[in-house]
Amino acid sequence: MARFDPRGKVNRALIVGVSEYAFKQPEHSTGVPGDLKAVELNLAGLETSLREGGVFAEDGITVARPRTVDEFDRCLGAAVDAAEGLLLLYFSGHGAVPSTGDELWLLMGRATIVPGAESVFLGAVPWKSVLTVLSRTRAEQVVVILDCCYAGNASSAWDALDPAQRHRTSLLMSVQANNRIDAGDDDTPTPFTGQLVRVLRDGLHGQGGEVGFDELADRLRDHMSAHHSTLREPPEPWEPQSRSASGGGVLLAAPSPQVSPVPPPRPLGGPYGVGGGAASPQSAAAADGPLSAGTAAPGRTPGRLGGLLERRPGGPGKPRRLGRLRRRNTCTVPSRRTLGPLTGRRLAAAVGVPSAIAGLVIGGLAVLDGGNGAPCKPPLELRLLTDPDLEPTVRKAAEAYLTSQENMTDGACRRSGITVYSAGAAATVAAFSRQSDPWQRPAGDDNPQRDIGPQPDIWIPAVSADVDRARPATTERTYVELGPDPEPFAYSPLVLAVPQNLAAEAVSERVGSLAALTAAFKNRADIRRTDPEYTDAGLLATVGLYGTGRPDPAAAERSVAQTGPPSRTGADLLCTLPDDEADARTAALLPEFLLHTGTGCDSMIRARRMAAYPADVPGMSPTFVRVRWRGAGRDEEARNDAAESFHDWLTGKTAGNGAAGQKGEQGPGARGGLAVFGRDGFRSPSGSRRPLGSGIVFSDFGALENPGPLTGTVLPSAMTRALKDYREANGPGRVLFLLDSSGSMGALWEGPGGAPGILGQSLAGLGERDEYGVWGVATEPGAARAYSEVLSFGTHEREQARRTVDATAKIKDREADPYQALVAALDDMARRGTDDHRPQLIVYITDDEDNDRLTEGGRLDVLLASVREKKIPVVMASLDSGGCDKGKPDAAVSEASGGRCLDTRSDLGARLRDEVARTGTGGEA
């Protein structure tokens, strides 16, 4: 998406480094492997490059050398509270990963390790707790840079963030997951930070210029992978990893051009925590530039800091020692010189961090596993893709498996880690079916890596029929092989969650056809279901609503019509209903298990609901699918073994798993993954569909433990037909795009993340029968109309429309008048929709720079009255990360019209494409 430029805002950078550790081996048996002298040079170099980068003010950069968790917490809290624009956090020091879990821990200066059967480490900060603290900042964008062993293990916690936080938080990790890296020589920065400082200081091409997060990550990845390898056996290319906020990245520096850019220090040394030693052959051969250990770069003075003595900018003069800069603005903490080793457990409350740890991998060295002293190797990481409604339960199962005996070797080391993520169900099916090639090698607008996520090893769809829908046509080339289980491993019926004041008491009156159940409270309650494009549960509800025989999708859609778009997930639906006056008179079609688990939201007062069981609405049937990719043969045998082990534990096939291990109906005796699903309210997939779990009372959350025979699974053709009918329920759609083309949009215009590129991507939701057009919004003051035509309104071939927009849409040295443009768009669309009920949508893509013309002289009130009267949804797509904040004009216009407000704190491009697809007919089935 559009790049966030923080210059001129209240920005804060917290540079954290731990170079000296109080308790080290072998002097202290519970100590860390050693000091990291190179980290001190990291702090000096990074502070200087940020000070000269034009983004952070003199008082906006703080350097911290925390000895304890409390000191780190105070420094982090101060930065979080002060930042309003960009908040940057950098950490360099020892990274640790417990052998029974995959979460990264950051070790402070007084960290110690307590080995044993329940080994723990003290004085360390869990990465998940750092993310939690960062989430409360007012800053518009957050950037985190981690330079430590196992930095890539931080990605799983980022993937688990809620969308709003995930898409305003950028994460740069020095190395891929489960890998150790060189720390460098004592007299040079670490290899990663040395290159980081060089790019920030000298620009992407050594001539100054702006440096954005995405370009920085790409440049570091290219350089490190080409010149360095990790310390894993066998060696792997050193590949820094990144997670970008809002796609377009964040501006981090805009250094002035340098006459003689300085090559980075030579990458020497051993793994982090060892401090010195011989370089690997790959590292030694990769020294950049002609400088030797005793040679200074032009304009620099040699010395013990390996060349980090620099003359003042502007010409010759007395050299300044960069190390002094950091002393001017450090994070002050009380003195603790008399403290001995920490004895209490400093364990932060973080989801997924086990309190009993069988071993610990720290700084690249193994520390006592299972009590027998044998080292643990970094575990293999599996990627698991699932349905958004299933994600919370699947995540719980994966976390339980990490510490299970089934995931342990004979030496009590962990076999594998699992990264769980979800994506829209319809998009996932389409990606497997038609986009396996660009999923491996993204090209053009087809980019499942961007829209879905990384290529999974395991897929758990919510409905077994998805597998057949995801298989490519026999004539299409594919790069993926799907290996599903023959049967699902769990089941949850879709229920009609009826407010208790409207629900029937008798069990016999709570089971029947959907039509009969809804007729019981006709004219007394509304019905809602989730987005059929986003979750399988929403599509299953649509299958039931449309019925069989000669369905009338348009009439069915009118029966669930609501103001604004449908909720994306069942949990979202349950959590938003209490904010609506209709809560006590609205029934919801959603999976039964969500009545038990989908209540963890902010609203404390909600209408209690009772489950009614429609016999003609298919249920959810989660199924394990092994995914294999053509050409992905590295670690194939180990990856197959890891996937099979998790499969057997999850589905109850593990030997000795009691009743769950036997073919046939599984019930309260289920263990392993089935027990996790049972605790969340799932049922057996066969027989009488008894509850999988014991100890939960279905009546406590308004459900029936034994409602009688429940609906079976759905046919793939029924789902495909329902999705097609949903998209065409009211005929082809009409969309009018308004593209802010004023002068302030210049920095937000080019590339796929620019405004025209975002618009072009959203056209994927429109088909050949949909009508649409594009207006450019920027005109001379007093002009007869506030827009010019970029693309004429009508039907278009999609690629031709994109080319026309690219060629015709131009920035103008004029201001935009959003009020006049929106009024004209509402009038135009109202005229077009006079004689039919086709879905319509207005989209305004803007940077909000001219919103003062929207609010002046009472204009906003007039506009809000107009959108309420015309009832045409307006999507305000703001390229400002705060454009949709409560009280902002964009939020008010969208809410009044029944549309959505989107800004760069979410994945604006993907969300806009979803909104357009709801109006159009072009989405993939």
Mind sketching the topology for me?
Layout: E1 12-17, H1 38-51, E2 61-64, H2 69-82, E3 86-92, E4 95-98, E5 105-114, E6 120-126, H3 127-134, E7 141-147, H4 155-159, H5 163-166, E8 169-173, H6 191-202, E9 211-212, H7 213-227, E10 241-243, E11 251-253, H8 281-284, E12 309-310, E13 320-321, H9 322-328, E14 360-362, E15 365-367, E16 380-386, H10 391-402, E17 416-422, H11 425-434, H12 436-440, H13 448-451, E18 458-460, H14 465-470, E19 480-484, E20 494-499, E21 511-512, H15 514-519, E22 526-529, H16 536-546, H17 553-559, H18 570-576, E23 586-591, H19 594-597, E24 609-614, E25 625-629, H20 636-651, H21 672-679, H22 716-727, E26 734-740, H23 755-762, E27 771-777, E28 788-794, H24 798-808, H25 818-832, E29 840-846, H26 852-855, H27 859-870, E30 874-878, H28 889-897, E31 901-902, H29 908-919
Parallel strand pairs: 1-2, 1-3, 3-7, 7-8, 16-17, 16-18, 21-24, 22-23, 26-27, 26-29, 29-30, 30-31
Antiparallel strand pairs: 4-5, 4-14, 5-6, 8-10, 9-11, 12-13, 14-15, 18-25, 19-25, 20-23, 20-24, 27-28
Stretches with pLDDT under 50, minimum 5 residues: 258-328, 333-374, 655-664
Radius of gyration: 29 Å
Largest sheet: 6 strands, mixed
Major β-sheet strand ordering:
2-1-3-7-8-10
Can you count the helices? 29
Question: What is the 3D shape?
Answer: globular
Q: How much is the average pLDDT?
A: 79
Summing up helix and strand content along with how strands pair, one would put the structural category as alpha/beta
Euclidean distance between termini CA atoms: 26 Å
Total strands: the figure is 31
- Percent strand: 15-25%
